[in-house]
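User: I'm preparing a small set of examples for a lab meeting where we compare how different chains pack in three dimensions. I only have the primary sequence for this one, and I'd like the structure in token form so I can line it up with the others. Please keep the answer compact; I'll paste it straight into my notes.
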Amino acid sequence: VKIEGEIMEMRETPGLIILEIEDMTGKITAIWFKQEEAINLTKNQKVEIEWRIEQYKDRLEIKVEKITGRR
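Assistant: Understood. Below is the structure token output for the 71-residue chain.
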């Protein structure tokens, strides 16, 4: 699945980044596991994400597979 939105909040841990993405339909929380190649993300940046839903600790979460910054 692919969506475009704006990063409203961002929390970074050693292995992943937790993003709050908002578009005209609402907000979602997405998990992005850090890759070898760095990407520069900032709050209020517009992004396009490709994601899938996975189960983790008996909860569903959105796992980002690809993220692209927009202008």
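A couple of notes for your slides: Strands lie at 2-12, 16-23, 26-33, 46-56, 59-70. The longest strand covers residues 59-70.

User: Perfect, thanks.
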